[in-house]
Specification:
Blueprint: E1 10-14, H1 20-29, E2 35-39, H2 51-67, E3 72-75, H3 78-91, E4 97-98, H4 104-110, E5 115-120, H5 122-126, H6 128-137, E6 142-147, H7 151-157, H8 163-178, E7 183-186, H9 195-202, E8 207-209, H10 212-225, E9 237-241, H11 245-259
Parallel strand pairs: 1-2, 1-3, 2-9, 3-4, 5-6, 5-7, 7-8
The protein binds D-glutamic acid.
Length: 261
């Protein structure tokens, strides 16, 4: 029988390590919750796949997390949210899902130039979710969509300080800056790990919007609504991957050094 006083378990998934940037913010705001993180590296990257393919992966990831006792599911992946958030909510009726959408709303609200750029995967821009977000929140603001093929893979390798990384980021960011955007939205959770680089390439006049804190707040609200907030700090954190576990352990060490900077 369920223990009514137990803290809710937060299940989080992404195609890889990107969602750990979200998990870090959730943990900072909700240190009393057990968490399970699933990196679906066996099926990564999601970005170049069709939305139908990503939907299948998202459903499998959800089932895995629920099977391990998750009470809420955070889709810490813009691509999987674009592909599957609505379908997962329909399919898993009682399970609360918190998904990601590119943070066009705060970006549009804060842009003096009335021109913003969104960096995301190819698949994220194909989804209806993105079109809806722009329709709802970008009235009077030009939104430039920039797909960044290869950038999530680069973050997965951890080689983000090499010249190749700077070149790749510059190839995506410089045209947006040249076009006059003053705000860039990180529309893929992997990009948080190269936010410094994006900011350096973009220059001091460009604001970078990372939605992680807003997502963490939303997770807190969902848990509070369901009486699932824990009362004591816990270190009950589990990491799983559908890919290579040895490589994943090395990535987790790298991620820990990046998050503590
Ligand atoms: N981290 C994912 C996102 O937020 C996608 C990376 C990928 O697998 O292409 O969109």
């Amino acid at each position: 029988m369920d223990d009514p006083t137990r803290p809710g378990v937060i299940g989080i998934f992404d195609s890889g390590i990107g969602g750990i940037s979200i998990m870090g913010r959730i943990r900072a705001q909700l240190p009393n919750q057990p968490m399970i993180y699933l990196a679906d590296q066996g099926n990564a990257p999601y970005g170049p796949q069709t939305l139908d393919q990503v939907r299948i992966h998202a459903r499998d990831a959800t089932r895995t997390l629920l099977g391990r006792g998750a009470d809420v599911i955070v889709i810490a992946c813009n691509t999987a949210s674009a592909a599957a958030l609505h379908e997962l909510r329909d399919e898993f009726g009682d399970v609360p899902f918190i998904g990601m959408e590119p943070a066009v709303k705060p970006a549009a609200a804060g842009s003096e130039a009335r021109k913003i750029g969104v960096l995301a995967t190819e698949a994220t821009f194909q989804g209806k979710l993105y079109a809806n977000v722009v329709d709802r929140h970008a009235t009077g603001v030009e939104v430039m969509a920039q797909a960044c093929p290869g950038l999530a893979d680069l973050v997965e390798t951890g080689d983000v300080d090499r010249p190749r990384a700077i070149e790749l980021v510059a190839s995506f960011v410089e045209p947006l800056v040249a076009a006059g955007v003053d705000t860039l939205v990180l529309g893929c959770t992997h990009y948080a790990f190269v936010a410094d680089l994006i900011s350096t390439v973009a220059g001091p006049g460009v604001e970078i919007i990372d939605p992680a804190d807003a997502i963490a707040k939303q997770v807190g609200r969902v848990l509070a609504d369901r009486d699932l907030l824990g009362t004591k700090p816990t270190n009950d954190i589990t990491y799983i991957t559908t890919g290579d576990t040895v490589a994943f352990d090395r990535q987790l060490e790298w991620v820990a050094t990046r998050l503590s900077r």
